[in-house]
Automatic annotation (TrEMBL):
<feature type="repeat" description="PPR">
    <location>
        <begin position="219"/>
        <end position="253"/>
    </location>
</feature>
<dbReference type="InterPro" id="IPR011990">
    <property type="entry name" value="TPR-like_helical_dom_sf"/>
</dbReference>
<feature type="repeat" description="PPR">
    <location>
        <begin position="254"/>
        <end position="288"/>
    </location>
</feature>
<feature type="repeat" description="PPR">
    <location>
        <begin position="324"/>
        <end position="358"/>
    </location>
</feature>
<dbReference type="Pfam" id="PF01535">
    <property type="entry name" value="PPR"/>
</dbReference>
<feature type="repeat" description="PPR">
    <location>
        <begin position="359"/>
        <end position="393"/>
    </location>
</feature>
<dbReference type="InterPro" id="IPR002885">
    <property type="entry name" value="PPR_rpt"/>
</dbReference>
<dbReference type="Pfam" id="PF13041">
    <property type="entry name" value="PPR_2"/>
</dbReference>
<keyword id="KW-0677">Repeat</keyword>
<protein>
    <recommendedName>
        <fullName>Pentatricopeptide repeat-containing protein</fullName>
    </recommendedName>
</protein>
<dbReference type="GO" id="GO:0010019">
    <property type="term" value="P:chloroplast-nucleus signaling pathway"/>
</dbReference>
<dbReference type="GO" id="GO:0009507">
    <property type="term" value="C:chloroplast"/>
</dbReference>
<dbReference type="GO" id="GO:0031930">
    <property type="term" value="P:mitochondria-nucleus signaling pathway"/>
</dbReference>
<comment type="similarity">
    <text>Belongs to the PPR family. P subfamily.</text>
</comment>
Length: 503
C-alpha cells in the first residue's frame, strides 16, 4: 500500500525534526555550561583552600589529599587552579606544593602550561632556588615541557631582580644544563634580549646584541624586540634612530614595527605623526591590524580627540575586523580622558550585548574616571556591579580603590573590599593593607587592623616594616602586647621561608 504525504504533513515533519535538533543542541549546551560552572566552583574552592592554608605552620599536602579526590584531578584542572593561584598572588611555595602534589597521580599528564604557571609564581616571589630546582626536575623527567616561554619567565625575573652578569649566567646554565640536546639559535637569543628590553635595560640589551649577534644572526623579531625596548624608555629619538638602523641593515618593517612606532609617537603626544605612519602602512601594502587601530584609538584619547577615536573604532568593522576587549577598552579610555565618563559606562553595556566580557582594564579605567569626576556614588555603583558579577580586579585597581575609600573616610567600604578580595581566595597587595591599616589605626580601630594583618601573614605574605611599626605603636598604646607578640611570631616564622624584600 502506497501512502501519499501532503505538503502540510511534510512541513510538520520538517518543523518537528528542526525542533528536535534545537532541543538536543540546547540541552547539550546547557549540560556543557552546567559542567563548566561546576568545574569553576571546584577550582575557586581549591584556590581558597590553598590560599587560606596557614603557612608555614602546617604542611599543605594532607589538606590537598583531604579536599581533592584523585578522580577530580586532570591536566586542565591543575592548569586552571595554578592560573587562579597566580592571579590570587598566592605564596609561591604553596603553589609549588600543589603542582608537585598533582604530579603524583599517573593519570594527570604534566603540561607546559602548568609548569610555566608554577615557574611564574615562584619567580615573581623571587624563589629562584626553587625555580631552578623545578627546571632541573623537568629537564630530567619531562624535557618536552621546556619552552621558550618558560625560559622567558625565568630570564625576565632574573633580569629584574638580579644583575646583568647573573642573567647571562642563567642563559648559559639553560643552554648547557637545562635545555640539553637543544641547539640554541636566534629564537633563544631573542628571549634573552627581551628579558632586558622588558625591564627597560637598553644599555644591557645593546651590550648583549653587540656581543652575540655574530653567533645568533638577528631576524625581524630581534629588531622589533630592540625597537620595543627603546619605545618603553619613552625616548622617541632612540626609537627613530634604531628604526633607521633596521632599515640600513635591510630589515623590512612589518606591522609590528609600525605598531611600535605609532605607539611611541602617540605616547609622546604626536598623534598626527601616528596617523601619518598609519597612512604610510597602507601605501606600502602593509595592512594595519586590529592592534594598529587600537593603538591609534588610545592616541586619539591622549590628544583629547574623541571624534577621531570614534571614527577609528567604527573603522574596525569597515575593515572586516572584529573589535575585541582591547579595542573597547581603548575607546573607553579615550572617552574617560576627555571627561565623557557616562558615555564610557554605556560602552560597558554594549560590550555585554556583543558578548564581550569586561576585564581588569575595563574596570580600572572606569573607576579612575569616576573618581576624577568627583562623586563617590558612581564609584559605589560600579563597585556593586563588579562584585555582583564576582569579578576580582587586578592589584593596581584594588590599591586604587582602597586609597579612594580611605581618603573618602569610607573605611566601611575599605573593609568590605578587603573582605571581598580575601573571601574570593585572593591575597591583597601589601600596599592595599598599608592603606587600610593606616586608615583603621588613625580612627582607633586597631582590632580590625590587627585582624587584617594577621590574615595577610597567615596566607604566607609579608607585611611591610612600616605597617608592622604602625601596629606596634597603636597596639602598645592600647595595652595589646599579646596581639603584638602574635604578629611578631608570625612574621619571624614567615621570614625564615620567604625571600628577603628587594627594598
Amino acid at each position: 500500500m502506497i501512502f501519499s504525504v501532503r505538503p502540510r504533513d511534510v512541513r510538520h515533519l520538517t518543523n518537528f525534526h528542526q525542533n528536535a535538533i534545537w532541543i538536543r543542541t540546547a540541552f547539550r549546551s546547557f549540560c556543557q555550561s552546567h559542567l563548566l560552572q561546576e568545574a569553576k566552583i571546584e577550582i575557586d574552592k581549591i584556590t581558597r583552600i590553598i590560599n587560606d592554608h596557614p603557612f608555614p605552620d602546617t604542611p599543605l599536602y594532607p589538606t590537598l589529599l583531604c579536599h581533592i579526590p584523585s578522580h577530580t584531578l586532570s591536566s586542565a584542572f591543575v592548569e586552571n587552579v595554578l592560573g587562579s593561584l597566580f592571579v590570587a598572588h598566592t605564596n609561591g611555595l604553596k603553589a609549588y606544593e600543589f603542582y608537585k602534589f598533582s604530579l603524583q597521580f599517573s593519570h594527570v599528564h604534566p603540561t607546559s602550561d602548568a609548569f610555566e604557571k608554577t615557574l611564574h609564581i615562584l619567580t615573581r616571589m623571587r624563589y629562584f632556588d626553587k625555580a631552578w630546582e623545578l627546571m632541573e626536575e623537568i629537564a630530567k623527567r619531562n624535557p618536552s615541557l621546556l619552552t621558550l616561554k618558560a625560559m622567558s619567565i625565568m630570564l625576565s625575573r632574573i633580569a629584574k631582580f638580579q644583575t646583568y652578569e647573573a642573567t647571562l649566567k642563567a642563559f648559559e646554565k639553560m643552554e648547557k644544563h637545562i635545555f640539553v640536546g637543544r641547539k640554541f639559535g636566534t629564537n633563544e637569543f631573542n628571549v634573552l634580549l627581551r628579558a632586558f628590553c622588558t625591564q627597560r635595560q637598553m644599555k644591557e640589551a645593546k651590550s648583549i646584541f653587540k656581543k652575540m649577534h655574530a653567533r645568533f644572526p638577528p631576524n625581524s623579531r630581534t629588531m622589533n624586540i630592540l625597537l620595543l625596548g627603546f619605545k618603553e624608555t619613552s625616548n622617541l629619538s632612540a626609537v627613530e634612530l634604531f628604526y633607521h638602523e633596521m632599515v640600513r641593515r635591510r630589515f623590512k618593517p612589518n606591522a609590528v614595527t609600525y605598531n611600535i612606532r605609532i605607539d611611541a609617537y602617540c605616547k609622546k603626544g604626536s598623534f598626527g605623526d601616528g596617523l601619518r605612519l598609519f597612512q604610510e602602512m597602507e601605501r606600502v601594502n602593509c595592512l594595519p591590524t586590529l592592534e594598529t587601530i587600537t593603538t591609534l584609538i588610545h592616541g586619539a584619547g591622549l590628544a583629547r580627540n574623541t571624534t577621531r577615536a570614534w571614527q577609528l573604532f567604527n573603522e574596525i568593522s569597515a575593515r572586516n575586523l572584529c573589535p575585541d576587549i582591547a579595542a573597547y577598552n581603548a575607546l573607553i579610555s579615550s572617552l574617560v580622558k576627555c571627561g565623557e565618563v557616562q558615555s564610557a559606562i554605556l560602552l560597558m553595556d554594549e560590550m555585554e550585548d556583543e558578548h564581550i566580557g569586561h576585564d581588569g582594564m575595563t574596570y580600572h579605567t572606569l573607576f579612575y574616571g569616576l573618581m576624577r569626576s568627583g562623586g563617590i556614588e558612581g564609584v559605589c555603583d560600579l563597585y556593586d556591579r563588579m562584585t555582583n558579577k564576582h569579578f576580582v580586579p587586578k592589584t593596581q585597581t584594588v590599591v586604587m580603590l582602597m586609597k579612594f575609600f580611605c581618603q573618602s573616610c569610607r573605611l566601611d567600604l575599605g573593609l568590605n573590599l578587603w573582605e571581598y578580595v580575601v573571601g574570593r581566595g585572593f591575597c591583597p597587595h601589601d600596599h592595599a593593607l598599608a592603606l587600610l591599616v593606616t586608615g583603621l589605626c588613625s580612627h582607633g580601630r586597631t582590632e580590625e587592623a590587627f585582624e587584617c594583618s594577621k590574615q595577610m601573614l597567615s596566607r604566607g605574605r609579608n607585611v611591610s616594616s612600616a605597617v608592622f611599626q604602625m601596629l606596634e605603636r597603636f597596639l602598645l598604646q592600647a595595652g595589646e602586647e599579646e596581639k603584638l607578640r602574635v604578629l611578631d611570631d608570625m612574621t619571624k616564622r614567615l621570614q625564615r621561608v620567604n625571600p628577603p624584600s628587594p627594598h
